[in-house]
Design goal:
Helix content is about 60%, strand content about 0%.
Length: about 70
């Protein structure tokens, strides 16, 4: 499985674990859902600050979510 697929799978699993939607996470992070979708689907490089905020919101690490380079 590629890092891209692992990222998508792990983020979606964490969202489900916390009964959260991508829209809810995007709102928590102060970004729009389209931007978060690009992050989840590895369509953009994720700044470390945003990667850290996503990991904190999902109570995990950037490494686990494959958000680090």
């Amino acid at each position: 499985m590629s890092n891209k697929d692992l990222r998508r799978k792990r983020i979606r699993a964490r969202l489900a674990q916390y009964d959260m939607t991508a829209a809810m996470l995007a709102d928590m992070l102060g970004i729009n859902e389209g931007h978060l979708s690009k992050v989840i689907n590895s369509r953009i490089n994720v700044p470390i600050e945003l990667a850290s905020r996503i990991a904190r919101a999902l109570k995990t690490t950037t490494s686990y979510l494959k958000l680090n380079k």
